[in-house]
Amino acid sequence: MSGVERLNPSGWSAHFRYDQAQVRPAPARVLTVAGQTALDEQAQVRHPDDAAAQLPLAVAAVEELLGLAGMGWGDVLSLTVHTTDVDAVLGAYSALTDVLDAAEAAPPATLVGVTRLAVPGLAVEVSATAGR
């Protein structure tokens, strides 16, 4: 994360592996990643209504798109996790923090509880913006 100025007026966000804000040089390329979920190739929900099982699948889908763009977790400018079960996602949050730790990344992130997602049975959706 060279050239990144990390802004954390307090340290509480470190446990969740995100910075409260970052200042970065303007990227030459920006990748916007739509909400990634636990849908299979036939658009069937994997692990219906199980946020803990769906989180690693959504994270892997984001990682795949980052790779296709020639980017990685260190290039993520902002990350949002939407879920119908905040407690289950927090219990399984290592599915996200492990990949962030491996990349030494701490993008600004938001976890949002929602009443439902677009497809019945989906419990997690992860979106991101990345730049390089």
Explained architecture:
This protein is α+β, with helices and mostly antiparallel strands and 132 residues long. It has one domain (5-131): 60s Ribosomal Protein L30, Chain: A (2-Layer Sandwich), CATH 3.30.1330.40. 25% of the residues lie in helices and 26% in strands. It has three helices and six strands; from the N terminus they run βββαβααββ. It has helices at residues 51-68, 86-91, 94-102; strands at residues 5-7, 21-23, 30-36, 76-83, 109-113, 124-131. The strands form two sheets. It has a four-stranded mixed β-sheet with strand order 3-6-4-5. Strands 1-2 form a two-stranded antiparallel sheet. It starts with a strand and ends with a strand. The model has no long low-confidence stretch (mean pLDDT 94).
- CATH fold label: 60s Ribosomal Protein L30, Chain: A
- Distance from N terminus to C terminus (CA atoms, Å) equals 11 Å
Q: What is the CATH class?
A: Alpha Beta
For the record, the CATH architecture stands as: 2-Layer Sandwich
Percent of residues in helical segments?
25-40%
CATH homologous superfamily caption: RutC-like
Q: Please state the CA-atom Rg, rounded to the nearest Å.
A: 14 Å
SSE succession = EEEHEHHEE
What structural category characterises the helix and strand content?
Answer: alpha+beta
The biggest beta sheet reads: 4 strands, mixed
**Domain module tally:** 1
Our estimate of the beta-strand percent is 25-35%
Helical segment count: 3
Keywords summarizing the entry:
132 residues; four-stranded mixed β-sheet; 3 helices; globular
